[in-house]
Amino acid sequence: MTALLEVRDIEKSFGGVQAVRGVSFDVRDGEILGVIGPNGSGKSTLFNCILGQLVPDRGSVRVNGRDVTGLRPSRLNRLGVSRTFQLLQVFPELTVRENLILAGQEHRGSRLSRLFGPRDAGLGAEADRMLDFFRLRRLEDETAGSLSYGQQKLLDAAMAFMSGSRLVLLDEPAGGVNLTMLADLRERLEAINRETGVTFVVIEHNMEFVMALCSRLIVLAEGRIIAEGAPADVRRDPLVIEAYLGH
Ligand SMILES: Nc1ncnc2c1ncn2[C@@H]1O[C@H](COP(=O)(O)OP(=O)(O)OP(=O)(O)O)[C@@H](O)[C@H]1O
């Protein structure tokens, strides 16, 4: 079976710094893959190469068998690929619902309909679905800036799933989220994966969260994959332990 995402031999340097050195992996349709590694191991650079924020020096990225290497993020959005960033991307002055609609419009490649189109730009039903999925319904008319940080992270994740995204890359979804909200976030991400079959790749520093959420992990150190497998095996791997302790 063709993988949904095929990453082959990606390399990326910044001046003399080799941030990613020949990374290859596949993500199967419906899988939740975690990408972990110490600070500076190349996780964000790899994500940016996959999602068109950076053009890799070498290697290729395929989505559903189609070569998308170096394609701009907006083109990837239209192919059903979206992402979150370490820093929140919500618009604090817009309501929760408006943020969802805007994200949906961006994924479709247009912000203009926000100004000129119908109020919900035809995305109302989908926004409703996300409000229910991420249990944000009672907050739909609140401005995003008035929510707690954990609620804003939930909204940020929900926005990535708008407009039929089939592959979502989540960059530190658990960062800065308190314990109660963490359990909620994980449970909701598992539910959306189970119920809609959407595939995700997650960069995360919170080990407990990532081990519980992901069915498979890859571990980066100094720009290379040093381990790959089920969370329980990866956490026992001497190379992984050394990479973390070394930092
Ligand atoms: N724009 C850039 N210019 C120069 N060097 C960069 C740039 N982006 C990343 N690097 C370097 O590339 C290496 C990998 O960084 P990257 O941010 O990809 O690691 P990371 O695993 O995501 O780290 P963290 O967990 O701290 O977010 C680091 O040495 C970093 O300093």
From TrEMBL:
Keyword Nucleotide-binding applies: yes
Instruction: Please spell out the taxonomic lineage of the organism that makes this protein.
Output: Bacteria, Pseudomonadati, Pseudomonadota, Alphaproteobacteria, Hyphomicrobiales
What domain of life?
Answer: Bacteria
Keywords on record: ATP-binding, Nucleotide-binding, Transport
**Domain ABC transporter intervals:** 5-247
What InterPro entries does UniProt report for this protein, alphabetically? AAA+_ATPase (IPR003593), ABC_AA/LPS_Transport (IPR051120), ABC_transporter-like_ATP-bd (IPR003439), BCA_ABC_TP_C (IPR032823), P-loop_NTPase (IPR027417)
One MF term in the entry's GO annotations: ATP binding
Protein species of origin: Reyranella soli
Output this protein's name. Answer: ABC transporter ATP-binding protein
Q: Which Pfam families match?
A: ABC_tran, BCA_ABC_TP_C
UniProt GO cellular component terms: plasma membrane
Q: Which PANTHER family match?
A: CONSERVED COMPONENT OF ABC TRANSPORTER FOR NATURAL AMINO ACIDS, CONSERVED COMPONENT OF ABC TRANSPORTER FOR NATURAL AMINO ACIDS-RELATED
